[in-house]
Design a protein that fits this description.
There is one protein chain. The protein has about 350 residues and is mainly α. About 75% of the residues lie in helices and about 0% in strands. It has 14 helices and no strands.
């Protein structure tokens, strides 16, 4: 059909736009209600059970669904004949426009004069029409209900969610538990270096592994038990030991006995190169270090003195063995310090 530049085409266009608007509203309003119900249900459930809370996004999704439905309705193709039929219905023109549209593109036939007369009558009628009666049909109550549901979903999304707050607190407690478990794992690694505490290290690691999947509150209680057991297995007064370790480290940092960044590294290096040192000077230095550490680190002091005596006697093998024992004793003391620090840290943390 070719209805361009004619009154009939204009009326058909008016009817088509009205139909598209009606269809768009008919799709968008129920969609808004359904999406609003879904958004309210989701945000309400999120306040009772731990499910992802979309917050205000749930309301935006509901609005977006209604907008998409509106766009689909507006984009719907409406044939000329259907639009003409709607115009006849609204204007009560007794199928005048529908008939004119139906016969517009037909092949010429025996009733050409009648068709031409009908089309002319339709054009004359259309020329007098500027607007269609009535308006776009909007279901007011469903629209109000849909908007109200979206607003309720938005309010639920921005208001405080007790389940979300509870989950955040549980996450905080779990983070504390994980941090303390990691500290105890470090202590277990340090304890494993000393044969005297290797069994304790294995027990500590096994207990920490059992915390996986345990609720934060129960895990915290178990950590406190582990910390108490750890404190019971390490010396209670480590102040003198800590002072002696610090003093030995400072002395060897200022005046090293061999290459190395740590006390143990220097003692191990010295044990490996005794053949190339001055026995008298080195023995005197080791005896001095042994005397300085005797009170805080008696085991280390005894091994250093033994190394000094063996070196003075010319027995480098015995001196090397004593230096290795002194290095192990330093490592054990450091492990005890770390374990005690981890135990004290676990006891100091509050999980409630």
């Amino acid at each position: 059909m070719s209805t361009s530049e004619s009154a009939l085409a204009r009326v058909v266009g008016l009817a088509r736009r009205r139909m598209r608007a009606n269809r768009a509203v008919a799709l968008a309003v129920p969609t808004l209600v359904a999406a609003g119900l879904g958004a309210v249900a989701w945000t309400a459930v999120a306040r009772v059970v731990p499910v992802p809370d979309g917050g205000p996004a749930t309301a935006l999704v509901a609005l977006a669904a209604a907008v998409v439905a509106l766009g689909v309705g507006l984009a719907t193709r409406i044939p000329d004949r259907l639009a003409a039929w709607a115009a006849d219905h609204w204007l009560q023109t007794r199928d005048a426009f529908t008939t004119a549209v139906e016969y517009a593109d037909r092949e010429p036939g025996p009733h050409d004069e009648l068709v031409a007369a009908q089309r002319l009558a339709a054009e004359e009628c259309a020329a007098t029409i500027r607007t269609l009666p009535g308006r776009v049909r909007v279901p007011t109550r469903p629209l109000v209900a849909g908007v109200a549901l979206v607003l309720v979903a938005a309010w639920l999304g921005v208001s405080a969610n007790p389940v979300e707050a509870e989950q955040a607190e549980l996450a905080r407690q779990r983070a504390l538990v994980d941090a303390e478990a990691e500290a105890l794992e470090d202590a277990a690694d340090a304890l494993a270096d000393d044969p005297a505490t290797a069994d304790l290290a294995r027990e500590l690691r096994a207990a920490i592994e059992e915390l996986d999947g345990v609720a934060a509150e129960e895990a915290a209680a178990r950590l406190r038990e582990l910390a108490a057991a750890l404190r019971a297995d390490v010396p209670q007064d480590l102040g003198a030991q800590r002072t002696a370790l610090s003093g030995l480290g400072g002395e060897l940092a200022t005046d090293p006995v061999a290459d190395g960044d740590t006390v143990r590294a220097q003692l191990d290096a010295l044990a490996a190169e005794l053949e190339g040192v001055d026995p008298a000077d080195t023995a005197a230095r080791l005896a001095e270090l042994g005397s300085a550490t005797q009170s805080g680190l008696p085991s280390v002091g005894a091994h250093l003195q033994a190394a000094a005596d063996a070196l003075a006697a010319g027995d480098t093998a015995a001196a090397s063995e004593a230096l290795g024992a002194a290095s192990d004793a330093v490592g054990a003391a450091a492990a005890q310090q770390q374990a005690a620090a981890a135990a004290a840290g676990s006891a100091a943390v509050s999980y409630t």
